[in-house]
Amino acid sequence: MCEIYNVCHTLSKGNEFHWQLNNGVYSVRRTIDGPAMHTFSTDLYAISHELILRQPHGTPLGARGDGEAPADSLGAALQLHGKTRPLASYLAAIAVAEGFFQYEDLGAGPGHGIRLYPVFDEPIREQHQAGEDTTTDASKFSDTHAAAKTAADALRDLAARVKASQPPEYKAYELNLSELTANEPPTIVTDIQNWEGSTGTNRYIYRFFVENSSIASELYTCLIDSKSRTDNDRKYSRVNTASSNSLCLYVGSSKSVTQRMKQHLGYAHPAVYSLHMKSWLNLPDSSVRLEILKYPGDVGQDVLQAIEDSLWQSSMPLFGKQGAR
């Protein structure tokens, strides 16, 4: 039995629990030594992902046992598969921790509660409605200077906190692409998991890169060709044409670097935007270097994002987008 457990917290009340994936079955425990409160298969996990992906405007959690669960909720879907609604709280928390989804707490009352949203590779922008009033009214912008001063003060504060942040712990791994052929992830995933420890305790920024432009060019073509396949349902990261001379493949961040590596290497759910390297066509016989920076869990998200953005700008990766997901 796998001895590594992940620590997680429910989305509504923040209750701590432990979970692990072993032989295709997720088990949830209140404590590591306690009995399993819930179990569910990877197939049921994938079904829950598909439900949330089909509802980009939000899927109700529907985990409470009292009253009727909303028909479009995760709790109602689990009941259809013979599972109790409280399982939805744990399943959703795991999916959020693994980076599959994000959530919003709308408070108590009918039509409120926790809602789950897909994580998209590209931001969704609201479009201007036809007939919208776009006239310039100076009175509407009388506080522009005050707003600019407030923004400047906030940026100075952020810069000071970034400068004062502690140096991260650094790890580097070499991956030969020939290892991405088996059904099980390569050994570096286990190495990263052992180093990471309990999921959610720390925060990570990572970077994939290669040693020369020839390999970078081959991998650039690999992903473009894979994205163009009509028989491939994987959600690949964006291709950055302006970065075609870079040696960096991807820059990103995560609360669970182990799960994010499984996604990028191609051993996770195909509907999550990532590199999915194992599925690339005509992978060359070469190596990819992975660098990971580990920060303490109490580092501010805005501080972490500023550091990631700086690394993104200096690396100009071939794939993925800059900024928060």
Kindly describe this structure:
The protein has eight helices and eleven strands. It is an alpha+beta fold. It has a four-stranded antiparallel β-sheet. Strands 8-11-9-10 form a four-stranded antiparallel β-sheet, covered by helices on one side. A hairpin with an 8-residue loop joins strand 6 and strand 7. About 5% of the residues have low confidence.
In short:
With 325 residues, the chain is an alpha+beta fold. 31% of the residues lie in helices and 21% in strands.
Low-confidence stretches: 121-136
Order of the strands making up the biggest sheet: 1-2-3-4
Write the element-wise H/E pattern from the N-terminal end onward.
EEEEHEHHEEHEHEHEHEH
Assign an overall shape. Answer: globular
Number of helices: 8
Please tell me the overall pLDDT: 82
Radius of gyration: 22 Å
- Give the biggest sheet: 4 strands, antiparallel
Distance between the termini: 34 Å
Question: Which percent range describes the beta-strand content?
Answer: 15-25%
Describe this protein with a few key phrases.
11 strands; globular; 325 residues; four-stranded antiparallel beta sheet; 8 helices; 2 domains; alpha+beta
